Amino acid sequence: MAFDSTQQALRAEMLLEYADIENDMCPTPKQITAGCALSLEFPEDSLEEVKAIIREERVEIRGIYSKVGDRYVNMEL
Asked: Which stretch of DSSP H or E encloses residue 55?
């Protein structure tokens, strides 16, 4: 998950931790254009729960991406 601001990245990290969803803060891949250098990785099987949290808590994100081969595909919210 990529963000436009560090504040939103840290907020999302806190919300996922509160929901007991494993996540890792990492540098945003160069292939993803975002205003923030931080992204969150989380298990694919948590995708629907993460989407629900992002919508409910109105977290501003650039997008949720999945790596396919050597590129990243934006998943729909």
From this structure: helix 47-56
User: Cα separation of 77 and 70, whole Å?
Assistant: 22
Pairing of β 64-68 and β 24-27: unpaired
Q: CA 35, CA 21: separation in Å to the nearest integer? A: 24
Q: What is the pTM of this model?
A: 0.88
Q: How far is CA 69 from the centre of its chain?
A: 19
Two tokens at 23?
Answer: 């996540």
Q: Has residue 19 got a pLDDT over 70?
A: yes
What 3-state class would DSSP assign to 16? helix
CB 24 within 8 A of CB 40: yes
